Each structure stands twice: as structure tokens, then as C-alpha cells.
Amino acid sequence: MTFMNDFSLYEYLTTSAKYKTQGKVKLKEFEKGEYIYLPNSPQNYIYLIESGVVKIGSYASNGEKVIYDVLTPGETFGNLNYLGEDVPFFEFAQAISGAQTSVYELNFFKQMIVHDPIVSEWFNITVVGRWSKAETRLLYMTRGNIEARLENLQKELSHEIKDKRGVVHNVFNLLSQQDIADLTGTTRQTVAKKLRSLDSSL
User: Fold this and answer.
1) For residue 4, is pLDDT > 70?
2) pTM for the structure as a whole
3) 66 pLDDT exceeds 80?
4) CA angle 152, 8, 173 (to 5 degrees)
5) Cβ(32)–Cβ(97) below 8 Å
6) Mean confidence (pLDDT) of the chain
7) How far, CA to CA in Å, does 158 sit from each of 52, 78, 80, 153?
8) 11 and 25 in contact (C-beta within 8 Å)?
9) For residue 119, which of 48, 112, 178, 180 is within the disulfide window of CB 3.0 to 4.6 Å?
């Protein structure tokens, strides 16, 4: 079984006669800058991006926000609560463009990925893709200099997506200099200097 890029979990579940999704599956929209959840929010839902861009992060010991992932349509986020109470879930999710997500009640979502072969394969592909992206970024952060890290991040995120209103954005251009610094393991000041030098060389 192979999934095409146009597979829609939301449409699959809400149009299937097998499932009663009322109260378990819905669509929700977020404005640019709006938090989808914060660390202390109840974690009763899993989210799938339908349009727009969402950044995922947490807080450092000094209270500063730290970004560690940027997600685009087709990617999921939220706490599946498989790791137990000893591994606290302490992240936030924030829309960095207008965004629409499909939202799944946690227990229903977990049941689908265990018992429905189509949903299970879709979820496996989605998770492996997320791992691959994270491992590639980590490789550049540990092996490459700042120029290589910036170049890799630009290659990864310089693609266009539509927000919830259909407006097209370059994902990389939605990031702040601090976001880029977090994702490349450096400082905002270093990023600002390197981006200026790159601009001047064009």
C-alpha cells in the first residue's frame, strides 16, 4: 500500500461509513502568532496541519523560548502520551502563518493508528519522515560550520506553502532570526551577521 501526497486523513475518517467522528475529529483555524497549546495545556488532542506553518518549541532553564522544529502541511504534532509520567511533555506550538489544522481526540487517534491499516501506514510514514528530517538537521548542527547549517536549513525550508487564506509563503522567510539561531544551534547575533554577509554577496 503506497500513499500519494494528496492523501487526507481528515477526509478519509470523516467520509468513511466505518467511523462516527462527531466530537472526535474537527477542523480548527489559528491566526499568525496564535498559540495552539502551551506547556501547561491539557494534552487531549493530536493535530495535523492542513495549511500554514507551525513552530514547535519549549523553554530553556532561563525561561527563554527555544524552537526545535518547524512543521508544514501533512505533519502531526501533540502528545501521544506513550512515554509515561517520568518523561514530561513541556512544549508549545505556535502558528507562524495563518494555519488550519485537523484536530483528533487523543484516544480516538491512538485507536485508529493501531487498528486501521490505512491510518497505521500513513502514521508510520509520517513519523519516519519527521525522524529523517530531525536526524539530518542534527547531523548538520554537529558536523557543519554555521554557513553549512544555514545553507541546509534554507534548502530544507525554502519551499512555498499556502496559509489558511490561500496566501503563498516561503517557509524560511517566516522564521525570525532567533528561530533560525535555535534551529542551527547558534546565536541570533551570529545569524544576523551571516545573513547580512550572504545578502551582500548576492
Assistant:
1) no
2) 0.91
3) yes
4) 30
5) yes
6) 90
7) 14, 25, 29, 8
8) no
9) 112
